[in-house]
Amino acid sequence: MTLTLIVAVHAAAAGGNWLGTLTAIATALAWGVAVSIVSQAAVSRLLFSMSRDGKLPKALSLIHERYRTPHVSLYLVAALSLIIGIVFLDAPDVLTTLVNFGALTGFCILHVSVISHYRIRQRSHRLLAHLAFPLIGLLIIGYVLISMSAYAKVLGLAWIAIGMVYLAILIKRGKGVHLASEI
């Protein structure tokens, strides 16, 4: 049960259904707006930097003259957020699961990267910090990923496949990834 729902249930018990509904709407709007603004700003800046590095269309790296913000990226993220919100309006649990799949997959990659960078490249002898802890984290997150619904796994893996195809296209065009050791 989400915190918003818990608060709404208690408000309804204290003041009736009207207070529960009002509390749920106010809480969702307050948290939703705050989280949306931060998320959209972060994602638009990520798209901006990827565009500036030649990984995405150049239009996404345009800066607004007056506000000095990546306005095209901001508009794109806002439009996509609106579309995704409408599509998943009746299935917020599916959307949450997909977001969790993406975040957890990213954390798995992070743990593998720690092992690769410190243990393999730098030949670190700190086994606990650079091997044991990342492996434990990888196992825990891997278990959570495996325990997700089949729907989330299929959609998440499809999204990863699309990303891999896009990466292959970038590599074929000579715009592939650059490892930290190459920079």
TrEMBL record:
The keyword Transmembrane applies. The chain crosses the membrane at residues 24-48, 69-89, 95-115, 127-146, 152-171. InterPro entries: AA/rel_permease1 (IPR002293), APC_superfamily (IPR050367). It is found in: Cell membrane. It is a multi-pass membrane protein. Its main location: membrane. The keyword Cell membrane applies. Keywords: Cell membrane, Membrane, Transmembrane, Transmembrane helix. It comes from the Bacteria. This is Amino acid permease.
